[in-house]
């Protein structure tokens, strides 16, 4: 009886097969890597959008809860920082000083960041006065201690504020929009926030948000 000799793979065939498998593994890994990069990018976009939404919500909450106390300014805008005296629901009769600003930083997307700062709960006029001044210092030349109380909201290329008083929108620094006495400053009927968002962020371009004082009667501005 004649035997048939078993046919095996030659060394060249084995090497070719290994090369093909290695190429397929490399292609598969590149596909997975691309998927991971896309997922990471989408997650970063989603995080930035959520951060912006949270910041806009906090902005409106701060304005809604502005405290109106005799001899204490409720609101002040000097072209650099918006300072508010707002109720502190967790401290009973206490208040907090809250500040919003845009801090320029050439190393950040768009050239700067939208920032929020708040004081600890305040119970006395002297404590409020100190916090009110600290808010301005924080916007101009912040110390390490003051920066510990800030929160970075979103990259910004710039921002503007307008107020609604006397039936029209106007620059808050104009004579028609100011009271002339910081201690008697009161919240306007409406506040228009205009943010310039850099092209590198998910929501780019100009974003405008109007806020209307909840106690305003006679319709929206």
List descriptors.
221 residues; single chain
Write the topology of this structure.
Layout: H1 11-64, E1 75-77, E2 81-87, E3 95-104, E4 112-118, H2 125-140, H3 144-147, E5 150-155, E6 158-165, E7 168-170, E8 190-197, E9 205-212
Antiparallel strand pairs: 1-2, 2-3, 3-4, 4-5, 6-7, 6-8, 8-9
Helix content: 25-40%
- Which strand-content bin applies to the residues? 25-35%
Number of strands: 9
* Uncertain ranges: 175-181
The biggest beta sheet reads:
5 strands, antiparallel
Determine the structural class based on helices, strands and strand pairing: alpha+beta
Distance between the termini: 106 Å
The largest beta-sheet arranges its strands as: 1-2-3-4-5
What is the string of SSEs from the N terminus onward?
HEEEEHHEEEEE
Q: What spatial form do the alpha-carbon principal axes imply?
A: elongated
Q: How many separate structural domains? A: 1
Query: What is the typical, i.e. mean, pLDDT?
Result: 83
Number of helical segments? 3
Radius of gyration, in Å, reads 29 Å
């Amino acid at each position: 009886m004649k035997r048939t000799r078993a046919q095996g793979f030659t060394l060249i065939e084995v090497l070719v097969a290994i090369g093909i498998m290695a190429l397929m593994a490399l292609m598969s890994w590149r596909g997975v890597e691309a998927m991971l990069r896309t997922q990471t990018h989408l997650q970063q976009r989603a995080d930035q959008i959520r951060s912006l939404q949270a910041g806009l919500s906090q902005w409106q909450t701060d304005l809604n809860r502005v405290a109106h106390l005799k001899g204490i300014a409720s609101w002040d805008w000097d072209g650099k920082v918006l300072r508010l005296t707002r109720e502190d629901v967790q401290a009973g009769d206490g208040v907090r000083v809250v500040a919003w600003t845009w801090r320029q930083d050439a190393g950040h997307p768009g050239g700067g960041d939208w920032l929020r700062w708040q004081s600890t709960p305040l119970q006395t006029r002297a404590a409020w006065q100190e916090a009110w001044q600290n808010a301005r210092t924080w916007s101009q030349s912040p110390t390490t201690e003051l920066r510990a109380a800030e929160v970075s909201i979103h990259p910004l290329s710039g921002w503007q504020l307008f107020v609604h008083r006397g039936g029209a929108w106007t620059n808050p620094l104009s004579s028609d929009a100011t009271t002339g006495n910081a201690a008697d400053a009161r919240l306007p009927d409406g506040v228009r926030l205009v943010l310039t968002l850099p092209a590198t962020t998910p929501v780019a371009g100009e974003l405008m948000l109007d806020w209307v004082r909840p106690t305003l009667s006679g319709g929206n501005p």
